[in-house]
Specification:
Blueprint: H1 14-19, H2 28-51, H3 54-76, H4 83-112, H5 118-142, H6 160-163, H7 165-177, H8 183-215, H9 227-235
């Protein structure tokens, strides 16, 4: 993870430079709103309303509270002062979001769709663990080795085996619910599961980015203040160094 300090910044490969970049400061507030209110809250609310069991709300309530309070802090704070924090937030948002939605998937499967097949739960959980492993390994492999060498596009066929499990899960889901459950709940479950997988990918990507940047501070460039922002701060009496 540590880049040789003798390496020149301009010699780094494009994908390495991208992993050393912050989120554009002008996009921070809008990104936080979309991440929390749309990508996290909407599928979570779908799951909670489908299950309608108070215990599941208690299980995910710590994640809800932490993410909403942290997101509010990022909305209030100066985005130039929270550049590292934003990267960490995106990693934690992915982790907590994935856990929350995986809990919803389990609850919907049992309480809403009345699936009692042990085999179904084994397959869906093993698939989730396998996909998590693939995403984490992909991030580690992508930034290991020579940081000056451009990476070739990976052979995605080796991941097709994991993706091929999706139809099998769909088939088992269909066989398990048969005609006893309204189709909209099946669709909702599938949507929530794919949101959960997306959040796993986000967690792997941005947690790796955070620690990768921390390990290579000499190659990290903070976003500078724009001229318009500088003028505004100067008028407010803030000294720009």
């Amino acid at each position: 993870m540590k880049i040789n300090p003798k390496m020149r910044h301009q010699d780094l490969a494009q994908h390495v430079n991208e992993q050393l970049e912050f989120i554009p400061v002008e996009d921070v507030r809008s990104s936080v709103i979309v991440m929390i209110l749309v990508i996290y809250d909407v599928p979570l609310l779908m799951g909670l309303l489908s299950i309608f069991e108070l215990e599941y709300l208690w299980i995910v309530s710590p994640f809800i509270l932490i993410l909403h309070l942290w997101g509010t802090r990022l909305l209030i704070k100066n985005p130039y002062s929270t550049q590292f924090e934003m990267v960490l937030f995106m990693g934690i948002w992915g982790s907590f979001g994935a856990i929350s939605l995986f809990v919803m998937v389990q609850g919907m499967s049992y309480y809403t769709l009345h699936i009692t097949s042990v085999f179904y739960y084994i397959v869906i959980n093993l698939t989730s663990i396998l996909l998590t492993y693939i995403f984490v390994k992909y991030q580690i492999d992508k930034y290991s080795g020579d940081p000056t060498k451009e990476k070739k596009r990976g052979n995605k066929s080796k991941y097709m085996g994991a993706l091929a499990i999706a139809p099998a899960i769909g088939y088992m889901l269909g066989q398990s619910v048969q005609e006893t459950i309204v189709l909209k709940f099946v669709i909702a479950l599938i949507v929530i599961y794919f949101f959960a997988i997306f959040l796993v990918y986000a967690a792997a990507k941005f947690l790796h980015r955070y620690f990768f940047m921390k390990a290579n501070m000499d190659y990290v460039n903070y976003h500078p203040y724009s001229n318009k922002k500088k003028e505004k701060l100067i008028k407010q009496g803030v000294e720009i160094k």
